[in-house]
């Protein structure tokens, strides 16, 4: 049997079929789930299994577990009965605001938790009404629990499966009633993540694990300079390797195709290609550093036309700097950073007549689909995208350069009559050197202080390449528009600063840059928080006590800072030679921060004794998952702070693997305590929020011990190493 009903844009869709029932809910926030006319999001099977669809890839952040908890809570079914699957990559499942099927900017639960709760709550209300009609009782006497509708006075109960056919005939609620937070039984609990068992037993199939019948493997190397071209190559040394099928010349790259990874990799290693240097062969880090610093000091960049920085604000900032009792004036610099995902870039592609199918780990299925369709001369609907579990994303998988390269490779093979599926893999060295790094940035920060020590105005002059330009997002690069990512962590931050002026000068060395975990906040939190500590030291004030003066009227941020610093015992007596450092930031409707305790056992060496990390992400779906994310973000940020750096010489990236781009090992991580502060505000971001404040917290602790501010990262560049 199949039943349907006509719905308004604010309605539900509940339909029955031989395999179960599906439901969707509409009129949701711009970044949330689509309306019912665009497709179903929840399926209820006859055996009680509930499947929720998601257009958010779970790339290790635990989003799918949180969504499952939302469905279980609002639908009143056992958590163990809920599954989460990726929705088809079709327009019906794109977010209605940005028209994308993607995960970025910590949007997983931030934009999808409430919509999915609304959908599940609406289904529960319709099922309850169906039960009330069947029982002949008022609906408020029906109790929904564990997938069953019950009426206690008459001791009657029915499973949801027995009610679905009746529920489909009912008028859907326009405003589903959500379960109050005080009554949560599933949401807000630290339930086991759905993805962990398969990851522990090794059964998770990552994108790199895809294996299709008759599949070939291609291993790729790129020109050593950005924009370099292949001049010539003798293919013979590769073709004599057993298992090698083909040597292919691609735009700016060379690929060897074989029966498996090792034959292809061995064949590639046997080649000695001659590369033309291209237009960027003269790039080196020392020259770029001077260019960035000079541009930041000149302060002639574009002034942003955002609400927080109107012309009056610019004038007020200039007046504040001119009339200040003291100006904290600091020039900062941070380097290019790699994403260094454990799973390198890859894409498996199968071309068919008037169609293509790909398997990959990605953060942006919709953009990938559209870009590959354009390359192949297809409509997006003719490209099937299978988003696989990812071994890390951190923003790198928002790009589709590697997907287009797989498309070029498949076209070249098809031209030679080879139509087998092919898995294209970038070896670690190719992955590390191929760009879309976090931009290198120099910034001059000037904080004007009045006679009372309070900020009067802040000016920040940034110089860096534009990640929006390199990622292809639509915006004009020049004096008429700005790269909004430059202002993250400066334009919107917690402190009361009356006047603010931010400028940006684009310095483009031709190195591809892109989104990196926490984006602009990753450097701007360092600039802001170390500047605040310098102001406190100038006044002879405790850094946390000084911040309390800057957070008057900012109750949420003040509460967060007080609770985190209290947890760390701020102000307690410390062993000789020890110091605490604090830093915090605000982004994605969340507040996060760090306190570190460290000592200096010998000149140029410091030892981290303990880290306290806190986050206020609003509504907390799964506290343990939040803890895991901020701990992971802390370690990610710690690696960048200590040694993270991509350098260039003669236009070539000098790092190639983890021996030259080291990451922090677990044995190096000190004891870490996590404070998760939930509240009734909307869900905020979590995945990126553990990153920005660890570096300035360490820098501020070192500053407390030495009196010398840290103005350059990584810390090795400032003369420091962790022991």
Automatic annotation (TrEMBL):
| PANTHER family attached to this UniProt entry | ALDEHYDE DEHYDROGENASE
Q: Which Gene3D superfamilies match?
A: Aldehyde oxidase/xanthine dehydrogenase, a/b hammerhead, Aldehyde oxidase/xanthine dehydrogenase, molybdopterin binding domain
Instruction: List the PROSITE patterns.
Output: TAT (PS51318)
Database matches in Pfam families: MoCoBD_1 (PF02738), MoCoBD_2 (PF20256)
* Protein's UniProt name: Uncharacterized protein
Which Gene Ontology MF annotations are present? oxidoreductase activity
Q: Taxonomic lineage per UniProt? A: Bacteria, Pseudomonadati, Pseudomonadota, Alphaproteobacteria, Rhodospirillales
């Amino acid at each position: 049997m199949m039943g349907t009903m006509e719905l308004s844009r604010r309605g539900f869709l509940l339909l029955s079929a031989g395999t179960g029932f599906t439901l969707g809910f509409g009129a949701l926030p711009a970044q949330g789930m689509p309306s019912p006319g665009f497709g179903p999001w929840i399926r209820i099977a006859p055996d009680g299994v509930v499947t929720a669809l998601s257009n958010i890839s779970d790339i290790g952040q635990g989003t799918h577990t949180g969504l499952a908890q939302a469905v279980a809570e609002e639908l009143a079914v056992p958590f163990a009965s809920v599954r989460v699957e990726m929705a088809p990559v079709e327009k019906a499942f794109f977010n209605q605001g940005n028209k994308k099927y993607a995960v970025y900017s910590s949007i997983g639960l931030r934009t999808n938790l409430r919509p999915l709760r609304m959908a599940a709550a609406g289904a529960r209300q319709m099922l309850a009404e169906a039960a009330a009609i069947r029982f002949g009782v008022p609906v408020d006497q029906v109790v929904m629990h564990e997938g069953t509708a019950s009426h206690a006075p008459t001791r009657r109960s029915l499973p949801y499966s027995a009610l679905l056919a009746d529920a489909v005939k009912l008028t859907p609620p326009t405003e589903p009633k959500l379960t109050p937070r005080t009554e949560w039984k599933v949401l807000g609990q630290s339930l086991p993540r759905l993805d962990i068992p398969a990851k522990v037993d090794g059964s998770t199939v990552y994108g790199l694990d895809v294996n299709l019948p008759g599949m070939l493997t291609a291993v790729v190397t790129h020109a050593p300079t950005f924009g370099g071209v292949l001049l010539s190559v003798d293919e013979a040394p590769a073709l004599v390797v057993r298992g090698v099928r083909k040597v292919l010349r691609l735009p700016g790259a060379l690929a060897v195709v074989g029966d498996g990874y090792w034959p292809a990799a061995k064949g590639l290693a046997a080649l000695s290609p001659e590369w033309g240097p291209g237009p960027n062969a003269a790039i080196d880090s020392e020259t770029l550093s001077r260019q960035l610093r000079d541009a930041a000091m000149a302060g002639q960049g574009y002034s942003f036309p955002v609400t927080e920085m109107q012309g009056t604000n610019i004038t007020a900032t200039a007046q504040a700097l001119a009339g200040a009792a003291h100006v904290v004036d600091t020039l900062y610099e941070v380097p290019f950073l790699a994403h260094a995902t454990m799973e390198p870039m890859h894409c498996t592609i199968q071309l068919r007549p008037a169609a293509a199918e790909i398997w990959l780990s990605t953060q942006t299925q919709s953009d990938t689909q559209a870009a590959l369709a354009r390359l192949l001369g297809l409509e997006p609907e003719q490209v099937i995208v299978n988003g696989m579990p990812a071994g890390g994303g951190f923003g790198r998988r928002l790009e589709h350069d590697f997907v287009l390269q797989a498309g070029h490779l498949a076209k070249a093979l098809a031209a030679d009559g080879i139509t087998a599926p092919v898995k294209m893999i970038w070896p670690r060295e190719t992955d590390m050197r191929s760009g879309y790094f976090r931009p290198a940035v120099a910034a001059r920060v000037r904080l004007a202080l009045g006679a009372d020590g309070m900020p009067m105005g802040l000016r920040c002059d940034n110089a860096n390449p534009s990640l929006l330009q390199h990622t292809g997002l639509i915006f004009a690069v020049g004096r008429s528009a700005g790269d909004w990512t430059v202002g993250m962590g400066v334009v919107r931050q917690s402190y009361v600063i009356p006047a603010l002026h931010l400028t940006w000068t684009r310095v483009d060395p031709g190195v591809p840059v892109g989104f990196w975990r926490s984006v602009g906040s990753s450097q701007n939190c360092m600039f802001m928080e170390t500047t605040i500590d310098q102001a406190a030291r100038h006044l002879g004030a405790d850094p946390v006590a000084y911040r309390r003066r800057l957070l008057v009227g900012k109750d949420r941020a003040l509460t967060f800072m007080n609770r985190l610093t209290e947890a760390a015992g701020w102000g307690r007596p410390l062993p000789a030679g020890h110091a605490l450092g604090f830093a915090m930031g605000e982004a994605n409707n969340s507040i996060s921060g760090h306190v570190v305790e460290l000592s200096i056992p010998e000149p140029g060496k410091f030892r981290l004794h303990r880290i306290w990390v806190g986050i206020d992400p609003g509504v907390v779906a799964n506290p343990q998952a939040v803890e895991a994310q901020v701990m992971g973000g802390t370690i990610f940020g710690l690696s960048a702070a200590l040694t993270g750096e991509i350098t260039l010489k003669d236009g070539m990236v000098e790092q190639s693997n983890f021996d030259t781009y080291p990451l922090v090992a677990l044995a190096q991580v000190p004891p870490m305590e996590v404070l998760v502060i939930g509240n009734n505000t909307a869900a905020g971001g979590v995945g990126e929020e553990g990153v920005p404040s660890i570096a300035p917290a360490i820098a501020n602790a070192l500053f407390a011990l030495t009196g010398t501010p840290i103005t350059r990262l990584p810390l090795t560049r400032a003369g420091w190493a962790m022991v």
